[in-house]
Amino acid sequence: MDIKQIPVTDNELAHQFEMKVNGQIAKIEYMMSGERMFLTHTEVPVSLEGQGVAAHMVEKVLQIIDERKLKLVPLCPYVASYLRKHPEWKRLLAHGIRI
Q1: Which residues, given as ranges, of the chain have pLDDT below 50?
Q2: Is the pTM of this model over 0.90?
Q3: Of 90, 95, 97, 92, which Cα lies nearest the Cα of 70?
């Protein structure tokens, strides 16, 4: 199964992005404040760890943030780490945010 072919959906009621893999849900939780999206927590089921699920989800969520013209506040350590490894996405950071 190609992880990159699995869609990431926005569950607005639960305030989380979700990706269903083999019947399990990986998620990135968020909060909104005006035009700023705070990514607060990334969670991948143990059985899916090490398969690139979290990285794929973060990439897709950053694309969504960009498409919606929002600014990012990465409170989740995994998301902050991803941004350090992929500096091209730092342009989405809200004013004054450093990682």
Answers
A1: none
A2: yes
A3: 92
